Amino acid sequence: MKKTLAALAIAVTVALGLSACSATAEPIELAAGTVIVDVRTPSEYAAGHLDGAINIDVQSATFDTELSALPADGDYVVYCASGNRSASAVTRMADLGFTGLTDAGGMSDAAASTGLAIVTAR
Asked: Within the chain, where are the H helices?
């Protein structure tokens, strides 16, 4: 009986742990004109990015300057590799007056939530 209860407890613990790891990205509706912004480095972007995304490296000294070429009232979906840099970029963009911002997190989550394919630079 003890072995059965122990096995059941382990199975429940494993099942709960695995379900916690499999977070699903919420769908993101892309309005016409939405700009997809990849804030990773140019080499990361070249290795693979969301179809149609532009690359503005959040760690670049020219990040703010490159953003100034974009309309602050546009719709933007921002992503990176894991979600850390996209969060930083969205905060910075909001500080610069951008509205319509969506932090899509890491690239795989962004691909899943937007339905956009991951492509490589040509």
From this structure: 2-21, 42-47, 63-67, 84-95, 107-114
